[in-house]
């Protein structure tokens, strides 16, 4: 049966549920039990039903449409990636629909398990939110062509950054400057369901210490009260008062490094003479502050993900590809 012939009424009848339950399962999946949700998705997939616009309605559109899902309000970097996406799709008359999501660090179980199954988009970009087993299965079986950014799943094409190598580069640089005690400054983090960028960076730092001849790597783990300048600045004041402290601090991103630098300077602690500070990202702020950091190609990652999605839309049967972007150490005055 063609998808244009299938209605929500037929899906409800075949699944043995009400029309409203079908609607909830497709548009608000978190409000339906996993067992019922899976039955509806399976039946709808077998019948060829897609919620939202039908195939003929999509064909009548004068432009394509993709959806981009990311924690835009939590991280400036995803807005930078979005610029790359818009640049890539702009010349091709494609409408980009943006969906903001909570940061993965805000939940103990940040995996994207449930999401609307949209029929009115030609492709989907998911950035910064790892897929859980159910979410991956739903998309793989029934979703539009999908590309992941900053997360991995064997069933999907992805664009990721080598965070382990990034941590290794910064730690190697600091060890070469004579530092033997390091700290990693990061936002509060509750999740344990997947390997985070911060965990990978810590692994890279530990590898650098081992290769330099250190014993069991000792890296002080500093979790801030918040993911902002004020939290980093407040902790720096406490850090400066300590009699014994690491001589080098690596912040999870440049904004935290900037707050920490500000707090150290307010406390009269000299950088880099007493404490070296480094970060990740390398935006304009890092250049202005003279901050040593690791450059991440954010706009490039957005453009690359968009190009891969365009290719998948044209040929959905492609084998999933993995693109790993290489970090670049940028050395400045703070180390």
Brief overview, please?
With 335 residues, the protein is an alpha/beta fold. It has helices at 8-15, 19-27, 34-47, 55-60, 76-89, 133-142, 163-176, 197-211, 229-240, 254-266, 284-289, 298-314, and strands at 64-70, 94-100, 123-127, 146-149, 157-161, 182-186, 219-223, 248-251, 276-281, 292-295, 322-325, 328-330.
The ordered string of helix (H) and strand (E) elements is HHHHEHEEHEEHEHEHEHEHEHEE
- Work out the count of structural domains: 3
Q: Helix coverage percent of residues?
A: 40-55%
**Model regions low in confidence, pLDDT < 50 over at least 5 residues:** none
The biggest beta sheet reads: 6 strands, parallel
Gross geometry: elongated
Please compute the radius of gyration using only Cα atoms: 23 Å
Instruction: Examine the coordinates and then state which fold CATH places here, giving the name of the CATH topology of the largest domain.
Output: Rossmann fold
In DSSP terms, counting alpha (H) and pi (I) runs of 4 or more, how many helices? 12
Q: First CA to last CA: what distance? A: 65 Å
Number of E strands = 12
User: Strand order across the biggest sheet?
Assistant: 2-1-3-4-5-11
Summed over residues and divided by their number, the pLDDT gives a mean of 86
Proportion in β-strands: 15-25%
The CATH H-level superfamily of the largest domain is Response regulator
Kindly name the structural category: alpha/beta
């Amino acid at each position: 049966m063609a998808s244009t012939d299938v209605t929500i009424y037929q899906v409800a009848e075949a699944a043995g549920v009400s029309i409203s339950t079908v609607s909830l399962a497709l548009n608000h999946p978190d409000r339906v039990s996993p067992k019922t949700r899976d039955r509806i998705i399976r039946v709808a997939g077998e019948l060829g039903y897609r919620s939202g616009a039908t195939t003929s309605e999509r064909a009548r559109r004068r432009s394509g449409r993709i959806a981009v899902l990311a924690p835009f309000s939590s991280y400036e970097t995803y807005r930078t990636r979005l610029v790359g996406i818009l640049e890539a799709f702009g010349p091709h008359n494609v409408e980009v629909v943006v969906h903001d999501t909570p940061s993965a660090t805000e939940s103990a179980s940040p995996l994207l398990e449930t999401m609307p199954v949209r029929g009115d988009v030609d492709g989907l970009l998911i950035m910064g939110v790892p897929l859980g087993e159910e979410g991956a299965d739903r998309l793989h079986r029934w979703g539009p062509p999908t590309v992941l950014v900053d997360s991995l799943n064997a069933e999907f094409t992805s664009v990721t950054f080598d965070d382990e190598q990034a941590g290794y580069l910064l730690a190697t640089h600091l060890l070469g400057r004579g530092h033997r005690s390091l700290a990693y400054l990061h936002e509060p983090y509750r999740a344990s369901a997947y390997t985070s960028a911060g965990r990978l960076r810590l692994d890279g730092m530990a590898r650098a210490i081992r290769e330099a001849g250190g014993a069991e790597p000792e890296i002080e783990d500093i979790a801030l009260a918040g993911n902002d300048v004020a939290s980093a600045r407040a902790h720096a004041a406490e850090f400066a008062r300590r009699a014994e402290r690491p001589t080098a601090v690596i912040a999870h991103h440049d904004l935290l490094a900037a707050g920490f630098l500000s707090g150290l300077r307010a406390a009269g602690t000299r950088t880099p003479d007493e404490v070296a500070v480094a970060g990740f990202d390398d935006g304009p702020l890092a250049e202005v502050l003279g901050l040593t950091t690791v450059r991440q190609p954010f706009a490039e990652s957005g453009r690359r993900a968009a190009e891969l999605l365009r290719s998948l839309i044209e040929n959905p049967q492609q084998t999933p590809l993995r693109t790993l972007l290489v970090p670049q150490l940028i050395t400045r005055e703070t180390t």
